[in-house]
Amino acid sequence: MLPSADNLLILMKQQIDFIIATNPKLQSFINWVLQKSELINVTSKTSTTNLYKTAIRAFYFTHGLPSEHPLAYNQDITLHLDCYLAANLPNQMSLDMALSHAFAISLAITPDVFHQRLRAMHLALDLKHLLADNDLLSNILYDLRSKLPNVDEDRQTLRLWWQLHGAVWIEKLRTIMIEDFQIGYDWEFNLKECKLIEQYWNACQLLLDCLNNASSNSSDNTCQSIKESLFLHQP
């Protein structure tokens, strides 16, 4: 309804940035999102838009969250920004997604269901196809996977193994993810911070909807600049 929506859109973006600026832990998290996204090599074959960097940040924003968070692994904004990238993930992102999946499985295991989930764990860590050009990391993951017991062991034996060794095994997986892939950090978000993360995500979605509906009364430069600055800490 405005003759020009540029100022309103800019003010909305400033308020979204303020959500992050109010919490040092969220600032650290969003800085990690940037650092991790900058490690991803994206070519013209994996993206067709100039918003792929923002799309990658949106991807890691949700993949860096605890698996129990309602936004964990949500790719709605990634798809919105660059649907081609989401359908053609670079190898590094596919590997990170697979490891996050394996880690989420391990965290959900209890001794009583370990015998049912063990085969899934073996399959989740069978990532040779994603590590064909990195023998070192492939061997590290193979070694971790080989420490899991045989799926043919009896239920009681498997239950006891997970009771005795499960926590240590999970911590080894997390250590590998952090040291070799820069993912899997335990941010220890409290309830308030989890709510702020949801608020930030929802506000970004709303802003994107507004940007897409303001094409007739906002400048292309403003819209592009705002989209390219999403999921960044703006001091």
Report on the structure:
The protein is built from eleven helices and no strands. It is an all-alpha fold. The protein folds into two domains: 1-89 and 189-235, no CATH class; 91-181. Helix 1 (6-21) packs antiparallel against helix 10 (191-213), helix 6 packs antiparallel against helix 7 (114-124) and helix 6 (91-108) runs antiparallel to helix 9. The chain is elongated and about 70 Å long. The mean pLDDT is 91.
Mind sketching the topology for me?
Blueprint: H1 6-21, H2 24-37, H3 52-63, H4 76-81, H5 83-87, H6 91-108, H7 114-124, H8 135-146, H9 155-181, H10 191-213, H11 220-228
Short note summarizing the structure:
The chain is mainly alpha-helical and 235 residues long.
Features:
235 residues, mainly alpha
- What is the number of strand segments? 0
Write down the secondary-structure element order. Answer: HHHHHHHHHHH
- In DSSP terms, counting alpha (H) and pi (I) runs of 4 or more, how many helices? 11
The count of domains is 2
Largest sheet: none
| Percent of sequence in beta strands | under 5%
Q: Span from first to last CA?
A: 31 Å
The mean pLDDT is 91
Outline the low-pLDDT stretches. none
Structural class designation: mainly alpha
Radius of gyration equals: 20 Å
Outline: elongated
Helical proportion?
55-70%
